[in-house]
Amino acid sequence: MWSILQVMDLPMSRPFLLALALAGLLAGCELLGDTSLPDYGTVEDISYVRHVQVLFDERCAGCHDGQTAELDLTSWEGLLSGSASGGPLVPFDTARSAILSRLGFDHPVEHGAERVPQVEVDFLKRWIASGARHDDGSIPYADSAATVLAALPDADLIAVVHPVYMAVARYIDLDALGFGGGSRPSHVTATPDGTAWFAALAASGQILRFDASHTLTGLAVVPEPGQLATGGDGSWVAIARPETSPTGPVRLLETRDMRVHSYDVAFGLTMVAGMLPGGSAGVVASRSADQLILLPTDDSAVRLAGLSGPRHEVVRLISHDGGLIAVGGDSGHLIFLEGTSPDALNQAGHVDVGQPLLDADLDRAGGLVALDQAHGLWYAPFLPGATAVPLLGPPDEAGRRTGVAAAEGRILVAFNNGVEVVVDGQVVRTIQLPGQAVSLRTLTGTTPTTSVPR
Question: pTM to 2 decimals?
Answer without folding.
Answer: 0.88
